[in-house]
What does this fold into?
Amino acid sequence: MENIKQVGIMSDSHDNMPAIHAAVEIFNQRQVDFVIHAGDLVAPFTARAIKKLTCPYKIILGNNDGEILGLYRIFEGNVFQPPHQLKINDKKVLILHDPILLDALKGSEKFDLIIYGHDHNAFVSQSDAKPLIVNPGECGGWLTGKSTVAVWKVLTDEIELVELEVG
It folds into this structure.
């Protein structure tokens, strides 16, 4: 993918439709060029909200994604098993759900950005750390009481955590 300026990052939405709608609205308002969901979207009916994105997207499966065949069908080639690699502009990105591989990858120059979810805790590594590591927190807000997503400014590697207004 080339000419990408902003990437929306979300994870752990766990079927919270109002939160998913709020995330899609934020990403559309900010005119992100691409969206990554790092797992635990959960059910195919979430497609009603996700498909309102005005940009392309990829969904990585998490440990709570239930009807996997339904997700594959409804999202038509946009659902992938973790770990999933992609290239955005000239940057190598690795998308996980479970952070179990993070310790082994810290300090690695193989990736420019690693995205994960699973623990529902928003995290952004220091900007001088390589690779840059991001957990957007939980879009669903079920565990922490906060619904959050992230926006990655690709050219500067700036990560902004955004708290959603849900309900």
